[in-house]
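Quiz preparation item.
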């Protein structure tokens, strides 16, 4: 059971303007709870006991929301990323790197995940009786568009490539923005993040570019959650889909 999670919630969510003009995307309301509150709830139901939330845009509002969430099941801490305006989410991972000790989960700040989905990820990926050191949670669908974080994986679940620019022929799954790090996985990822952020272009990258670079090690696998409830809140038209999901949870 992984008891630690990191939420990457530093961004504004500019693609959802004007809804995010005066509040960050993680505080959008869904069925009378913020996106962030739903994430904490589902992670807590799934056995997570400690959550680091990386904040950035309007961090005081996020801090206030975290203070309002009084939940004995989980200890929540805010980690402020002062570079959120100039760095992509690899920068948030770099800010949180000191917390990447022991097994942990990473969840994108715009992804809603169900209790059943968290349980599936907690159960592990099961590769030759062992869990992958790094496991990318994936879903499958008939076709993938340009905005999907596409995945290429082997029949045994091993990840070979991940990125938005993969071709249709290369893609056989999509990442939902939820990863698990076990055993040697945390150290592998932490070092890769450190190395990437020392390059001139590091601040421009998503952290999944680092995962793509680690795929050649053979230590990155996938967890298929097809059929389980989740939603990515990326555009205004995602609101209705996500609300239908949280209405069921509520």
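Solution:
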């Amino acid at each position: 059971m992984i008891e630690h999670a990191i939420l990457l919630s530093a961004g504004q969510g500019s693609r959802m303007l004007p809804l995010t003009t005066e509040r960050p995307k993680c505080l959008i309301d869904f069925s009378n709870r913020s996106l962030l509150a739903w994430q904490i709830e589902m992670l807590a139901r799934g056995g997570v006991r400690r959550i680091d939330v990386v904040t950035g845009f309007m961090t005081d509002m996020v801090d206030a929301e975290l203070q309002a969430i009084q939940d004995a099941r989980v200890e929540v801490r805010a980690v402020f990323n002062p570079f959120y305006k100039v760095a992509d989410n690899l920068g948030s991972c770099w800010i949180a790197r000191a917390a990447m000790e022991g097994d942990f989960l990473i969840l994108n700040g715009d992804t809603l995940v169900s209790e059943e989905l968290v349980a599936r990820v907690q159960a592990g990926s099961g590769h030759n009786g062992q869990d992958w050191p790094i496991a990318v949670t994936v879903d499958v669908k008939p076709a993938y568009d340009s905005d999907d974080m596409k995945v290429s994986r082997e029949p045994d679940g091993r990840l070979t490539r991940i990125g938005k620019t993969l071709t249709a022929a290369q893609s056989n799954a999509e990442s939902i923005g939820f990863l698990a790090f076990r055993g040697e996985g945390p150290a592998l990822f932490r070092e890769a993040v450190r190395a990437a952020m020392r390059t001139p272009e590091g601040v421009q990258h998503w952290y999944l570019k680092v995962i793509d670079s680690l795929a050649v090690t053979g230590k990155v696998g996938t967890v298929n959650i097809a059929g389980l409830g989740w939603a990515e809140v990326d555009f205004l038209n995602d609101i209705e889909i996500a609300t239908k999901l949280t209405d069921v949870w509520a």
